[in-house]
UniProtKB/TrEMBL annotation:
It comes from Scleropages formosus (Asian bonytongue). Disulfide bonds join C24-C34, C27-C64, C37-C53, C196-C203, C251-C291, C392-C404, C424-C666, C449-C453, C472-C511, C477-C486, C488-C502, C517-C522, C519-C553, C524-C538, C540-C545, C559-C564, C561-C592, C566-C575, C598-C603, C600-C645, C605-C614, C617-C620, C624-C633, C630-C699, C649-C674. This is Integrin beta. The chain crosses the membrane at residues 703-727. Its main location: membrane. It is found in: Cell membrane. One of its GO terms (molecular function) is protein kinase binding. One of its GO terms (biological process) is integrin-mediated signaling pathway.
Length: 769
């Protein structure tokens, strides 16, 4: 469906925008107050079909017969509308009990014009003797030991109190503690079996939530089942209250909730864990909001799923029409008071230390809940909004919920429900009803986005050139023809190519949305306010220019194709300024330091320079390094640019001085390694400088060649002498060692040259004779 944003206000009057309106359906979708004239002779030859689309008042003023004006309006039809029950007991003439009717109507059909609000009424009367179901959900952690003893005798007393309100009252019972994993419960096997102190003999094993007794009218049965319950325990202070509430609400079959006023009474002396706390016990799976009671009626996913969030609990209570009563001790009353603000139709009461006042507490809370009527809806379909008013005190201001306080039994209250469809849509359904009650009004919504026209079919052939048929006064052409009267034959080019010729690019609407594409050419509309639209693509008009002082082009120019053409002596995008450069001029007469344009007597600087006069450039680098070569040739006639210094350095005006007084002059090295000292002052324009150069460079003293050569020779000679001395020393040492050895051998009377014989030769012929 299309969004309805196109009805606009022009000069205090409603106007229907004509963008892309080609048919009655397009017109109806273009705005909630737009109507279509189906009168055949309403538009003249050459006029576009969109002229048929306007408000009812405008069409009547332009002589469209009222019977030819198509304006689908919103209305509703009551599909089920049983009367509200009286204050008598709900029995028919045969004394057969029948269910009371507290909400009227029971079903309604809405036919809505998108963007147009429509209202209908819902009536509510709190019936006498309406059944009440009360489920008592008790914290059985050890700190509630005294309270359990009193609750064991509570059944008949509680039923007697409820039967003062209704003859059909039922009560049930459930209990809870917490998850049985660390750090919530001691997981020692012995402590899981008996989480209570040693002195406590009657103690049941640790558990999460347990359904004990389904809703019953028997108070003795309540007392018997509760009497069999024992206290249990856990480690930390908060309890698994939200787990228990969730299972009590969604396990409707097991609990036994009926068609009744449903009350859930939670009694505890501690706060509650919520979504995310389960991660402390390594439980990461989010709560799914479903029933998980096993055969023993115990919550089977207690240690597998995280606690539910407060939002989940609030939604499930509302979905199941259950009203919560938090009967808590004084120390946690602030916690549950905050919870009451999040959960509608809930009350908080303060328990005595032993819960002895619980019956009176429940009675008071029920009276408050039943006397406060809150009318609300379930989740709305996309594109539908609802708000409420009522005939109650303070109910005349529209709000997201209808609220009436102090509504007694038999008192009828009337809510006005206003529904708006924001767009065209298929059939949608949602429910509206008082919170805490099962009765609802079913609302079916359909949108009226098509025109229902009774056309004169005999005019088809003449009106549509024999190539189409009349549809709400306009021609719907046969295949191969187009145009207002189906008189343009497409020929070799298909309609897509012809329409492309009417768009400057793929992102722009055909003829800029301000004309009709006829055989590949734009036929521009007249503007809704009389403006002339022109241009190849109907993209020009002489009114969509900038406005200054509520005047087009400031009253100092003419609008031409959406751009202001200023009169002589004016400038600016809206011709809002007289041409003047007074505030842009410096003392030397230059405008914006020749680094920008003066527009509307203000400098618009370029190249990073800043207003007001484009004199400073905070982000620009220092010019000193880049100017070094020019300083060298201008001041000292040296360097790589000395041959063409005038041409290369024409942007620098220089002078040479004997002394510089600047605090931070530039210091740059020249090609000879000398330091040049100078100052630079930026002149008007870009890269123009005035330079003052110190006439002397700071050069290092020249090196003495003789000293260097002499030193080199002396060094070499010294090194050679040291080498000779070293060699001589080594030889001397070796001689001394040899001499020492010689002296040692001589002292033994052995000639150092003597060597003993090592071979003996015998004459074999010698006989000794």
């Amino acid at each position: 469906g299309a969004q309805f944003c196109c009805l606009r206000t022009f000069l205090g009057q409603e106007e229907c925008a004509k963008t892309l309106v080609k048919s009655c359906a397009d017109c109806i979708k273009s705005g909630p107050k737009c109507a279509w004239c189906k009168q055949l002779d309403y538009i003249k030859q050459g006029e576009p079909e969109w002229k048929r689309c306007d408000t009812e008042a405008k069409l009547k003023q332009s002589f469209c017969n009222e019977t030819n004006i198509i304006f689908p309006s919103s209305h509703h039809i009551l599909l089920a509308n049983k009367p509200l029950s009286t204050n008598r007991r709900h029995q028919d003439q045969n004394n057969v009990r029948r269910e009371p009717v507290q909400v009227q109507p029971q079903e309604v059909q809405l036919l809505l014009r998108p963007g147009l609000q429509h209202s209908f009424q819902i009536r509510f009367r709190l019936a006498e003797d309406y059944p009440v179901d009360l489920y008592y959900l008790m914290d059985l952690s050890y700190s509630m030991n005294d309270d359990l003893n009193n609750v064991k005798r509570l059944g008949n007393s509680l039923l007697r109190t409820l039967r003062q309100i209704t003859s059909r009252a039922r009560i049930g019972f459930g209990s809870f503690v917490d998850k049985t994993v660390l750090p919530f419960t001691n997981t020692n096997p012995d402590r899981l079996k008996k989480p209570c102190p040693e002195k406590e003999n009657q103690c049941q094993p640790a558990f999460g939530f347990k359904h004990v007794l389904s809703l019953t009218e028997n108070g003795d049965e309540f007392n018997h089942e509760v009497a069999a319950q024992n206290i249990s325990g856990n480690l930390d202070q908060p309890e698994g209250s939200l787990d228990a509430i969730m299972q009590s609400v969604v396990c409707g079959v097991g609990i036994g909730w009926g068609n009744s006023t449903r009350l859930l009474v939670l009694t505890t002396d501690a706060g509650f864990h919520m979504a995310g706390d389960g991660k402390l016990g390594s439980i990461f799976e989010p709560n799914d909001g479903k029933c998980h009671l096993d055969e023993s009626l115990t919550y089977s996913k207690n240690n597998e799923m995280d606690y539910p969030s407060v939002g989940q609990v609030a939604n499930k209570l509302a979905e199941n029409n259950i009203q919560a009563i938090f009967a808590v001790t004084k120390n946690v009353e602030p916690v549950y008071t905050r919870l009451k603000e999040i959960i509608p139709k809930s009350e908080v009461g303060v328990l005595s230390n032993d819960s002895s006042n619980v019956v009176e507490l429940i009675k008071g809370a029920y009276n408050k809940l039943s006397s406060n009527v809150i009318l609300s809806h379930d989740e709305l379909p996309e594109g539908i909004t609802v708000h409420y008013t009522s005939d109650c005190d303070g109910g005349h201001t529209p709000s997201p919920r209808g609220i009436c306080n102090n509504v007694g039994i038999g008192k009828e209250v009337v809510f006005t429900v206003t529904v708006t469809a924001l767009e065209c849509m298929e059939k949608k359904t949602f429910n509206i009803g008082p919170l805490g009650f099962r009765e609802k009004t079913k609302v079916n919504v359909e949108t009226r986005c098509q025109c229902e026209c009774d056309d004169d079919l005999s005019a088809d052939k003449k009106r549509c050139s024999g190539h189409g048929r009349i549809n709400c006064g306009a021609c719907s052409c046969d295949l191969g023809y187009m145009g207002h009267k189906c008189d343009c034959k497409v020929g070799d080019k298909d309609e897509t190519h012809l329409k492309e010729a009417c768009r400057p690019d793929n992102m722009t609407a055909e003829c800029s949305g301000q004309g009709e594409c006829t055989c590949g050419q734009c036929m521009c509309h007249s503007g809704a306010d009389g403006r002339i639209i022109y241009g190849q693509y109907c993209n020009c008009n002489d009114r969509d220019c900038e406005v200054h002082n509520n005047k087009l082009c400031g009253g100092n120019g003419k609008c031409r194709c959406n751009v202001c053409i200023c009169d002589t002596g004016y400038e600016g995008s809206a011709c809002q300024c007289k041409i003047s450069t007074q505030a842009c001029r410096k003392g030397d007469g230059s405008v914006c330091s020749n680094r920008g344009k003066c527009e509307c007597n203000s400098c618009h600087c370029q190249g990073g320079y800043k207003p007001p006069l484009c004199e400073t450039c905070p982000g620009c680098p220092s010019p000193c390094p880049a100017a070094a070569s020019c300083i060298e040739c201008l001041g000292f006639e040296k360097g790589p640019l000395r041959k063409n210094c005038t041409q290369s350095c024409g942007h620098i005006q220089h002078k040479t001085v004997a002394n510089l007084t600047a605090k931070k002059p530039c210091r740059e090295r020249d090609s000879e390694g000398c330091w040049m000292v100078f100052t630079m002052n930026e002149l008007n324009g870009f890269d123009n400088y005035g330079v003052v150069i110190l006439d002397k460079r700071e050069c290092p003293e020249p090196v003495s060649i003789g000293a260097v050569v002499g030193g080199a020779f002396a060094g070499v000679a010294l090194i050679g002498l040291l080498i000779l001395i070293t060699i001589k020393g080594i030889m001397r040492y070796q001689d001394l060692q040899e001499y020492k050895k010689f002296e040692q051998e001589r002292s033994k009377n052995v000639s150092p040259m003597y060597q003993a014989a090592t071979t003996t030769v015998l004459n074999p012929n010698y006989t000794g004779d």
